[in-house]
Specification:
This protein has 156 residues and is an alpha+beta fold. It has a five-stranded antiparallel sheet, with no helix packed on it. Strand 4 and strand 5 form a beta hairpin. The longest helix has 21 residues. The chain is globular, with a radius of gyration of 18 Å. The C terminus is likely disordered.
């Protein structure tokens, strides 16, 4: 009986952790309304991901969320189904990285950013979900709702 109780407790803990991992809301939005991804280990470089005309546009921002000019930075992107990921072509245009969006309403996008060609990459992940949030009516990947528990703690 004790073993069954332990297994049930572990299963419940894993289920709760998975639920919070995939819950909407609580994402950081940038100055242009895009999703902020961390492109450094010390929060000095960010990527702001927006979508327009079937493409992701990734602007670089410094620690103060001010634009950073593109230079010799490198961005590698992999997207799609986990069993069959696709390496996506990345171009530079209008001071941003541009990446074509994949087919589908929901998939993972993995970004590997390098400040220079010889640097080690920093990996950032984005779960793209085009479905609209029932509360704020924004796409889930850009949901403006506070994370669970966040609204309650702010009221105190």
């Amino acid at each position: 009986m004790k073993t069954q109780l332990k297994i049930t407790s572990v299963f419940a803990a894993v289920l709760l952790a998975a639920n919070s991992l995939f819950a909407h809301g609580g994402v950081e939005l940038g100055p242009n309304g895009g999703r902020i991804l961390e492109f450094s280990k010390d929060e000095t470089m960010h990527g702001e991901v927006t979508a327009k005309d079937g493409k992701f546009h990734i602007a670089l921002l410094d620690k103060d969320m001010k634009p950073v000019a593109l230079g010799d930075q490198v961005l590698t992107v992999t997207a799609g189904d986990r069993d069959k990921p696709t390496k996506v072509e990345v171009t530079k245009a209008d001071g941003k990285f541009v990446v074509p969006m994949q087919k589908g309403e929901a998939y993972w996008v993995i970004f590997q950013f390098k400040p220079s060609a010889k640097s080690k990459p920093v990996t950032a992940r984005l779960h793209y979900n085009a479905e609209n949030c029932s509360e704020c009516n924004s796409p889930e990947w850009l949901c403006k709702c506070p994370a669970e528990g966040e609204a309650k703690s702010k009221k105190k």
